[in-house]
């Protein structure tokens, strides 16, 4: 979104420069004595056309360079002793875009053509024609415009390269650190949690097989082991997600809702709007928001029903997850790590997240993810 705004500002600025140059050339041409018919009218048209062509200098610098050069030679041939200001701007834009050889060739051709154009006008002898050509386009101006454009192009290239290098280095270090944490968690916790889970499951099974009453503490240990195992798997999965080949996205949400239904939660999914492609990061975040919301409902909401609503809007993906659990505006649950993680993911994409009790009871989580900005 920011890029789009910058482009709009740049386009407006290009047009302002083009109109300003065209107006300056036209006023200079009008200050002389020229006929309103024939060559005089053609000269006025070329003055304006050479200036207005600069508006396309950012998109087609070589074409604008050629048009500005032809216009400069044309109005010189029509008898207009006006400096080739538009051509100087075109040289600057072409050099900044990196077209050095083409710019040099066109500049030499225009330099050689200006004296001939002055002679063609029939208003000057040879000496005056060369003097007029020097006045219309000084070589020093040409060199300065080209040098300024080249210097700025190289500076922008270096700045872009430095920024790209910093981003790649930071991303690589973050990936390495994330994988390191995943390995540490796997090595230090997976085995111990698995032992607790297996031993507690076995103890409950043996006790029931013997017809003995299973202690509440043992059942609590078994449930804690199951929950810790699920949480650890989810954590490792998130840490190993390298953001390039995401394992889950919008297409996996129906499967996620179905899986929640198999675990005892009556979850429904509603999709509205005209479905369209969204950036990978948006799809991944949407999946994580739904996943974490359903997990929290199953663990804390004390309810068996939940609804997931996804709305495809032109520039936004809206997600809402509701439950009819025990939460009320007077007894809002304390925000946990899961909610904090959802908020961080949504905010990182420039979106908004609301998580609050509903007035009719239960809890709602609403996320709005801007599609264009995340792209």
Plain-language structure description:
This protein has twelve helices and five strands. It starts with a helix and ends with a helix. It has a five-stranded mixed sheet with strand order 1-2-3-5-4. It is elongated. The relative contact order is 0.06. The chain is 66% helix and 10% strand. Helix 2 (39-52) packs antiparallel against helix 3 (61-77) and helix 5 (100-120) packs antiparallel against helix 7. The protein has helices at residues 2-30, 39-52, 61-77, 85-96, 100-120, 126-136, 139-209, 216-240, 253-262, 280-300, 337-348, 371-374; strands spanning 266-273, 305-312, 316-323, 352-357, 363-370. With 375 residues, the protein is α+β, with helices and mostly antiparallel strands.
> What's the total number of strands?
5
Largest sheet: 5 strands, mixed
Give the distance, in angstroms, between the N- and C-terminal Cα atoms: 9 Å
- Helices and strands: which structural class? alpha+beta
- Number of helical runs? 12
Tell me, briefly, the overall form: elongated
- Specify the helix fraction band: 55-70%
Mean pLDDT: 78
If you compute it from the alpha carbons, what radius of gyration comes out, rounded to the nearest whole angstrom? 35 Å
Strand order in the sheet with the most strands: 1-2-3-5-4
- Portion in beta strands: 5-15%
Low-confidence runs (pLDDT<50, min 5 residues)? 1-8
Order of helices and strands: HHHHHHHHHEHEEHEEH
